[in-house]
């Protein structure tokens, strides 16, 4: 299941919209189990706000056009980096409107950018970065009897998902409005694999007794590196989640392709 518009990026026209804003608000707060410092991040999913004109290549580049995509930061030096979009385009940030944004290697981000021109040498485009917003990124947790209550098992709707390198990115919806929520990808230590030996991963949600007043959208990336098996180039696993009443549960077999087991 993929939202190809979001994976590949979509073209917008007009004034550059910020990735931080006041529409389609996502309350990503303290998803990490055991993290005591709580803070509220308001992240805007621009694609519902922006009047998209399509996702096709255009004949030329204009400063009045911008693209929005999920991407990964690739550090090339102490203060230099590339942005690799989820469809594989490599972007060189020739200019940025957010010089204060701290980037790090393998950081998952939403990027709003304007193409300045074609590049060479393995880079696709020179771009101006209009805005960046970090995507919540986590690993796989062990689900144990001791942490089961805090991990939770409450309804969440998986809207779409896709692979990018070692990352499984999931876009989802949950009900809330006031309290901190927790999102995790877990493997039950008492039931780690299915009858065919495939790892079972649960996309879990703890609403923290928050009344479901609003449908809140979110995006999260999970690093699947720990699933790698020596001598293999891919591994199959089962993704499951607990649905809302009247909806079908997610129970799908996915394949994580990672090439050589010696790659990092």
Question: What structural keywords apply?
Answer:
OB fold (Dihydrolipoamide Acetyltransferase, E2P), five-stranded mixed beta barrel, single chain, five-stranded mixed sheet, mainly beta, 264 residues, disordered C terminus, Immunoglobulin-like, globular, 2 domains
Short description:
The chain has helices at residues 4-8, 148-151, and strands at 10-13, 25-29, 40-44, 52-54, 65-75, 81-85, 90-96, 108-118, 125-134, 136-138, 140-143, 157-164, 167-176, 182-188, 200-206, 214-223, 234-241, 251-257.
CATH architectural name of the largest domain: Beta Barrel
N-to-C span: 26 Å
Radius of gyration of CA atoms, rounded to a whole number? 19 Å
What's the oligomerization state? Answer: single chain
CATH level-1 class of the largest domain: Mainly Beta
Q: What class do helices, strands and sheet pairing give?
A: mainly beta
Please tell me about this protein's structure.
28% of the residues are buried. The chain has 264 residues and is mainly β. 3% of the residues lie in helices and 47% in strands. The protein has helices at residues 4-8, 148-151, and strands at 10-13, 25-29, 40-44, 52-54, 65-75, 81-85, 90-96, 108-118, 125-134, 136-138, 140-143, 157-164, 167-176, 182-188, 200-206, 214-223, 234-241, 251-257. It folds into two domains: 4-134, OB fold (Dihydrolipoamide Acetyltransferase, E2P), CATH 2.40.50; 137-257, Immunoglobulin-like (Sandwich), CATH 2.60.40. It contains two helices and 18 strands. Residues 20-58 and 260-264 have low confidence and may be disordered. The two termini are 26 Å apart.
